[in-house]
Design a protein that fits this description.
The complex is a heterodimer of chains A (503) and B (240). Chain A has 503 residues and is an alpha/beta fold. Chain A is built from 15 helices and 21 strands. The model of chain A has no long low-confidence stretch (mean pLDDT 95). The chains are: A alpha/beta (503), B alpha/beta (240). At the A-B interface, helix 3, strand 5 and helix 7 of A face helix 1 and strand 12 of B.
């Protein structure tokens, strides 16, 4: 039988300078996708471009800089409606009958509101502060705050607070499970979180026994599949996060294929080796805020009310009403994940079409909780593409207590955003369980790079606080006067609760 | 054994009292208090009355006897231990339980044994003496679910949609299951002697707790349901 044409061309071209290439075959050894091959007869390196995902591993490691990966410039006839990608996706589905599966955050050109918001600075009438000479407080405490200050008969403040998570900077590493990312990636995140005085998040795949020692810098997650959840796990962390949703795939569950459930992942998730790890879309015991309250309090009862409980939801329509319900469910912290949030695998259609931008969700939620007088019931943590220290500053001024970052953290570990995590063949040793690939990420180096990234952000956060004349990050929270919009319409400004630049 | 009166106590104070004693506990006048013995490891509780939802959630070794009915989400994410319910049980008992036993004398509600798992030496067992509601063993990933159908009524042994999404473990229904529809990714067969031997010990234990004759109960037609694949969704996707 003749193989039918599948209409798919390679997405990328490998451009190899024969003049520079010394046939050292590093590219061949480094490519888990099997793109490069040495042909001894012709003494030449050949490329199977169909396999290339543009992860840049070969480019970075080629000792003579002989390689470039370029977009395949072959073009289908231009059509503003039927774009090339749209057509290729049709071919892929017609070839296989499969649901399109993608990784990492929504790459489509939706508005990035962070980039349409500008920050204020002190000039003449109010002094700015030099963070190099004066103390600046970037520490935050996440958890329920009391409504009033209570004093005893001697006038001393009653300091008994509900449990809090203390962070030295208002940034945490958001949930990425062991299984979706490697052991070395988890070790990098855990050790960096400890060094930085912040938290990382186990994701829903349980906590590896080696990492219980980083418990006070760990948020343990409970999702619908309840992988690895048991008493010691719940007690190990600084807080417990109930995962209701994820920005990259709101309303659907997770599915770690059996091929990624090796001995160690199986042990951590407490499921049999080789068995699919299925997290159903809903928690089958949660159909209402009252039911959510039940899970929140079952976790509190199991841990003696010593751990703050986070409820993580995806940013979707009516997020303000949803958050209001969560704030009344007994949760201590609400985490909201915007529609540009990353993922190890999500159906393309869902990743690219479901959910709303985190900036709008955050502004709407903060306002709603303040209007209802329940803002102090919860802390707000937002993620879903926080890319820089200025995004953090803008998020806090819009009302967040802290930010979750994951894609930024993976980039620090060497990720090149090739968006093929679902293949399990990550050449950078991050989104893989292949031992040969995992060891490419040195956890010591990984830790150092994460610490570098957030140390730099901390300096930048302090600089920006200083220029606004603010010396405590708490005084920036919800301080929307520090923000102005550019190129936004009235409705967008109204939702964001900010004025236009020039006003 | 210490006796505690649960009358007019909320779940937090009741659980505090239970945790504060080192010995076994007898609870009387229990009326809907939730989360009783959540995460408990090393004691035995006898409960008189009706405990509320999430009884024995994350249970880690404790033994609970309920002399009455139990409500929803009993043994949620249970790791080890045993819960015996001498009446009926509500929805979603044994949600994601990984180990231990839940034995129910009467009927169970919806979604019993949903997402049940198994892991190394942990093999959870859920036995329902009466009939089970819809969605029994949904997403079952491990462990053993047994329904005996001992209650005397004309209901089917299980209501609609059993085993939806099942990808591990085994289910035993004491019935020929004629007219019961199973999804395409599982196989339902009549249990042979070897199958019955697998559950003999558990059923005997169940009978000891509730005063039945195990041989008599096991001497009946059983249907055993097993999933065809541990990777049911493998072919669904194409990389994009």
């Amino acid at each position: 039988m003749i193989m039918p044409i599948n209409y798919i061309l390679p997405e990328f071209e490998v451009e190899r300078s024969d003049y520079r290439c010394i046939r050292c075959r590093v590219c061949e050894r480094q490519c888990a996708n099997g793109v490069h091959r040495y042909d001894a007869d012709g003494d030449i390196m050949l490329s199977d471009e169909f396999q290339c995902v543009d992860c840049q591993r070969c480019v970075c490691l080629c000792p003579t800089h002989a390689l470039k990966i370029r977009k395949n410039e072959n073009e289908l006839r231009e059509n503003a409606n039927w774009k090339q990608n749209t057509i290729l996706e049709i071919y892929k589905q017609a070839n296989t009958g499969g649901v399109l599966l993608s990784s990492m955050g929504n790459p489509e050109p939706f508005p990035v509101y962070w980039d349409k918001i500008l920050i204020n600075a002190s000039q003449v009438t109010n002094p700015s502060i030099d963070p190099l000479r004066e103390p600046m407080e970037t520490r935050v405490f996440l958890g329920k705050k009391p409504h009033d200050i209570e004093r005893d008969v001697n006038g001393n403040i009653n300091t008994e607070l509900p449990p809090q998570v203390e962070l030295q900077i208002p940034v945490m590493f958001s949930a990425m499970s062991y299984g979706s990312i490697s052991y070395n990636a988890h070790q990098s995140l855990a050790t960096a979180a400890e060094a930085l005085g912040i938290c990382y998040n186990t994701g829903e795949g349980g906590l590896h026994e080696d990492f219980y020692q980083y418990g006070k810098n760990t948020i343990v997650q409970v999702a619908s599949g309840r992988f690895g959840v048991y008493k010691d796990y719940l007690e190990a962390g600084a807080a417990i996060e109930i995962k209701m949703g994820q920005g990259a795939k709101p309303g659907i569950g997770g599915h770690l294929p059996g091929t990624k459930v090796g001995a160690d992942v199986s042990k951590t998730r407490m499921i049999p080796e080789g068995s699919d790890a299925i997290s159903p879309a809903p928690h089958h015991d949660i159909y209402s805020i009252e039911d959510l309250r039940q899970l929140v309090f079952s976790l509190k009862e199991a841990t003696d009310y010593k751990k703050p409980v986070i409820v993580k939801v995806a940013a979707v329509h009516n997020i303000a009403a949803i958050a209001s319900g969560i704030a009344r469910s007994g949760a201590d912290i609400i985490a909201i994940d915007g529609f540009r949030g990353g993922t190890g695998a999500a159906p393309t259609r869902i990743r690219d079409n479901v959910g709303i931008p985190i900036e709008l969700a955050l502004a709407a939620v903060d306002k709603r909780l303040r209007d209802e007088g329940i803002r102090q019931n919860v802390s707000l943590v937002v993620g879903g593409s926080v890319r820089s220290a200025s995004d953090v500053i803008k998020a806090i001024a819009l009302g967040a207590d802290a930010c979750y970052i994951a894609t930024s953290a993976l980039l620090a570990l060497g990720c090149h955003l090739c968006r093929t995590c679902q293949s399990g063949k990550c050449n950078w040793g991050i989104a893989t369980q292949d031992p040969e690939l995992v060891k490419r990420l040195n956890p010591e180096t990984g830790k150092e790079r994460l610490v570098n990234l957030l140390t730099a952000w901390k300096h930048e956060i302090k600089e920006m606080m200083g220029l606004m004349g603010i010396n405590s990050i708490e005084a920036l929270r919800g301080n929307r006067l520090m923000l102005r919009g550019v190129g936004l319409n009235e409705k967008e400004l109204e939702i964001l609760g900010i004025s236009h630049a020039g006003e | 054994m210490v006796s505690l009166d649960a009358k007019a106590l909320n779940h937090q104070s009741l659980n505090q009292q239970i945790k504060s004693v080192d010995e076994n506990v007898k609870l009387i006048n229990v009326l809907g208090q939730r989360f009783i013995a959540a995460g408990a490891a090393d004691k035995s509780l006898d409960i008189y009355g009706t405990p509320g939802n999430a009884l024995g959630a994350y249970l880690n070794g404790a033994v609970i006897n309920v002399y009455g009915n139990a409500q929803d989400a009993v043994g949620d994410t249970m790791n080890s231990g045993q819960i015996n319910v001498f009446g009926n049980i509500g929805d979603a008992p044994g949600y994601a339980m990984r180990g231990g036993r839940i034995y129910v004398k009467g009927d169970a509600g919806y979604r019993a044994g949903i997402h049940m798992k198994a892991y190394k030496e942990h093999l959870p067992v859920l036995i329902i003496g009466g009939k089970a509601g819809s969605f029994l063993g949904e997403y079952q990933a491990g462990g053993i679910i047994i329904v005996l159908g001992l209650t005397d009524d004309d209901k089917d042994i299980v209501a609609n949609f059993p085993c939806t999404g099942m990808h591990g473990g085994k289910m035993f229904l004491r019935s020929k299951c004629e007219g019961i529809h199973f999804p395409h990714q599982v196989t339902a067969a009549s249990a042979d002697a070897e199958d019955i031997d697998l559950i003999r010990g558990y059923v005997s234990e169940f009978c000891e707790v509730f005063g039945y004759d195990a041989d008599e109960i096991l001497n009946a037609d059983f249907t055993v349901i097993t999933p065809d694949s541990r990777n049911p969704y493998k072919q669904m996707y194409v990389a994009n």
